[in-house]
Structure formats: C-alpha cells, structure tokens
Specification:
Layout lengths: L2 H8 L1 H17 L25 H11 L22 H13 L11 H15 L7 E5 L2 H20 L3 H4 L9 E3 L5 H8 L7 E3 L11 H9 L5 E6 L11 H6 L6 E6 L24 E5 L11 E5 L2 H8 L28 H35 L4 E3 L7 E6 L5 H14 L5 E5 L2 E7 L7 H16 L1
Helix pairs in contact: 2-3, 4-12, 5-12, 6-8, 6-11, 13-14
Keywords: Antibiotic biosynthesis, Decarboxylase, Lyase, Pyridoxal phosphate
Protein name: Aromatic-L-amino-acid decarboxylase (EC)
EC number: 4.1.1.28
C-alpha cells in the first residue's frame, strides 16, 4: 500500500474529525459568508506526484480554495432555484459516501429497496398513484431526458417501429408542443436525436407563461399523427402553471404523450392553499421533479416518474451476463441512463424521515411568504418594478428605469460583488430582468431584510 494511503488509513478517525471540523466551521459561517464570490485569476498548481496525505490536502484546500466557495448553501443565495441541505439530508449524504453503495444492481445489498421506498414516498407526496414508477437521477435535465426518451419510444410504438432497436431515424420527424419550455427540453431533444427543431412553441395566455389550452388544441388538431406535449408545473421566471387537468382532458380527442416539468413547482402539492396548481399531475405520462431544489437535499438529486415502465425498460435495458436476469422488478440500471450511480436516495430518505410531510410543507410555505414579502417591498420601492405577480417562490423584477441588458448585467455583477445575496438574470416577455428564487430551508425574515437592503443599496449606488 502506498505510504500516504497507509498513513491515512491508520489515522482515518482523525482525518474525518478534521474534515468534520472544517465542515462545521463552514456551516457556522454561512450567515456571514458572501452569497457569491466572483472568481479571480487562478494559478493552476502542478499535478502532485508523491502526494501529501489527507490532512495536508485539507490544509491546502483551506488555504487555496475555501474562501472562493460561494455561500450557495446559505439563506441569501437566491439564484437558480437552489435549495440547501437540511441537517438530516447532510448526514444522509455523508453516509452515502461512507457506504459507497452502487444501487444499480440488487444482487449485493438492500440499497435498491431503500430507493424504491423513497421513490414511493415521493410519489405519494406529489399525489401520483401506484401506476407510476420512478428512479433517482442527477437533476431535472436528466429527468427530462429520461421522460422524453420514454416518450420517443411511445411515438415509435404508435408508428409501429422500435426506436430503441432501429434508432431515431426510424421514427422520422416528431412534434413536441409546449408553451414555455424550460431550456433543458431542446437540450434533451438534441441529445435524443429528435432535434431541437422538433419543438414548437404554442402561444401562452395574455400576461402569463401558461399555455393557451385552446391554442394547444388547435396545434394538436393540425397534426397528422401523435405528438409530445411538455407542460409546466411551475415556470422558471414566474412559477406559472399550465392547466394540467385541461391539457390531460385533450387526450380524449388527440393522441399525445404528456410530459410535465414539475422541477420545483411540484412541491406546491404539499400546501393545501396551492395544491390546486398541481391538480392533474397524476394524469401525466412522465413527470420531472428536482430534489436539490425545494426538498433541500444536496446536489445532485432528482427523480423521474412514468406510468410506462415497460417502455422505459425497452429504452434503458442493459443486457449483460454479469448483471443477471431482468426480473419482474428491474434493477435501476435498466431504467435510467446510468449504470453506476451513487445512492442519491439516502439523503432524501433521511430528510423525509426526519421532517416528514409537515416539515417540508413548512419550508414551502415560508419560502412563498418570503418571496411575496420581497415582491411587496420591491413594488413599493422607487428603484424597482415587478414584472409579474409573485405566485409562489420566484420574484421577477427589473429596475424602474433604464431596463437594458447592459444594466441588468451590471446589476448582477454589483449584487454578486456586494456579497449579501446572489440573483440571476433572465428575460421575461422579451425584456431583460432579474430573478430571486426562494427555496432554502435556512432563509428567514431577517435574511429578507438584508437582501432588500442590499438591492436598494446597489440600485442607488
């Protein structure tokens, strides 16, 4: 054994204690850590040859890199709809690395059973029935890829061809309809060989990001064959929801696969006041939910659901002698793009056991309340104006004057350099804008006070 490995093995408890100490200090310092740390010039170190050992690696990380890590786990990071990691989820994630299970196969551990239990809990959380199966993936993008891959196989089934055997060319041109598709949708279509040009945008309702269902019906009626409809349960700019029940009802007249992007909006199902927004989610054929957003588990974690596991197996089935037979309950390596995968279910399992439906509902309610509070403050400020109602946890706004892309870019830089908070730019209804997304379990009213003060300071500066 390499001498450094042997040293670290013999002193492993001490090494883990040192890492725990560094992690504890980082978490304790989140209230004061800059939400964003604009990167500077970095001098790349040469590749280590002999190695310095684990303790020395910790020390070098602390000296060279730790100060440049953003406070994205903290309460005032409002960019990209980023959750944090609840205490229980963090503990589960540490154990995920400790046990280092590959839950792709069920031949050597009960890890797959834990994942199936967690997926079942999540399906119940979102009101999905027993006809849905699911699996953990890296994020909403890969959940979309998985769902649309199953949709592609469904299109092949309708056309009498096997896309999984003969390729996307056997299918020919396809049509994917959506009102306000997330950017991951054309990316997935490109990845899957259906092409970005397959996506056709359908008009949205006036002043909304929700699709006009009547226009969607017209688009479906103009087609010669089946299609894929991508609906939204929470858009990125304004958390707008398509009328899922009305869209699902169109299946009585038209033949289409309904894929619903509920990356973070799906968590509205936890709150009785907002659950009506997700009504009809159980009528989807495939569903996307991101867990490192509002479930507040560490990156990376998401789940995909579908009611057609048979088609999913046809797409992702992996036949090899060393993997054994594909049984009645397929191993996860036959259901997702990955063969090898970490036990992403464990942090989610920990957080659900620790806080339950009620604890996670409280996080959603508090985030919505804080977002609406920020919206009201911005609406009353002479420096800013709201661009849309604050429906759930995202505030979309712009300067009161001089709304140009250059001004928005300058504000994003100034806000990041201030360090109190971090926001991302966007474009809403053709106009450059800013977006503040509340999804971290740590965020409180005191944090909101600091965020608003920073925005006023930057606007006036």
């Amino acid at each position: 054994m390499h001498p450094r490995l042997a040293e670290d093995l013999n002193s492993l408890p001490e090494l883990l204690d040192a890492a725990r100490k560094l992690a504890g200090e980082a978490l304790a310092g989140l209230p004061d850590r800059p939400a964003a740390v604009p990167p500077g010039a970095v001098s790349r170190a040469p590749l280590p040859l002999g190695g310095a050992g684990g303790r020395a690696a910790l020390e070098e990380f602390s000296q060279r890199w730790e100060a440049g890590v953003a406070g994205s786990a903290g309460p005032r990071y409002l960019g990209f709809v980023t959750g944090g990691a609840t205490p229980a989820a963090l503990a589960g994630d540490w154990l995920t690395a400790t046990y280092d299970q590959n839950p792709a196969s069920g031949m050597d551990s009960s890890a797959q059973d834990l994942e199936r239990e967690t997926v079942g809990w999540l399906a119940e959380l979102f009101g999905l029935g027993a006809e849905f199966s699911g699996a953990f993936v890296t994020g909403a993008t890969m959940s979309t890829v998985t769902g649309l891959a199953i949709a592609r196989e469904w299109l092949g089934e309708r056309a009498g061809v096997s896309v999984s055997d003969d390729g996307a060319a056997a299918l020919g041109p396809v049509t994917v309809l959506s009102g306000s598709p997330h950017s991951s949708v054309p990316k997935a279509l490109s990845f899957l060989g259906m092409g970005r040009s397959a996506l056709r945008k359908v008009p949205v309702l006036p002043g909304r990001e929700a699709v006009d269902v009547a226009k969607l019906a017209e688009a479906l009626g103009s087609l010669d064959g089946p299609a894929v409809v991508v609906a939204n349960a929470g858009t990125v700019n304004t958390v707008d929801f398509d009328d899922l029940r009305a869209i699902a009802a169109l299946k009585q007249r038209y033949d289409f696969w309904l894929h619903v992007d509920a990356a973070f909006g799906g968590f509205a199902a936890l709150v009785p006041e907002h659950a009506v927004l997700t009504a009809g989610l159980d009528q989807a054929d495939s569903v996307v939910v991101d867990l490192h957003k509002w479930l507040n588990v560490p990156y990376d974690s998401a789940v995909q659901f579908t009611r057609r596991r048979d088609l999913q197996l046809r797409v992702f089935g992996n036949n090899a002698a060393y993997l054994g037979e594909i049984g009645e309950t397929p191993d996860f390596l036959h259901l997702t793009p990955e063969n090898s995968r970490r036990l992403r279910a464990l942090p989610a399992w920990f957080s659900l056991v620790a806080y339950g439906r009620d604890g996670h509902r409280e996080i959603v309610e508090r985030c919505v309340s804080l977002a609406r509070d920020l919206g009201a403050r911005l609406d009353g400020s002479p420096h800013w104006r709201l661009l849309a109602p604050v429906r759930l946890n995202v505030v979309c706004f712009a300067p009161a004057e001089d709304v140009t892309q250059d001004r928005i870019d300058a504000l994003v830089r100034a806000i990041a350099e201030d360090g109190t908070t971090f926001l991302t730019p966007t474009v809403y209804d053709g106009s450059p804008a800013l977006r503040a997304a509340f999804s971290n379990w740590r965020t409180t009213a005191a944090d909101l006070d600091r965020v608003f003060a920073a925005l006023e300071r930057v606007a006036a500066g």
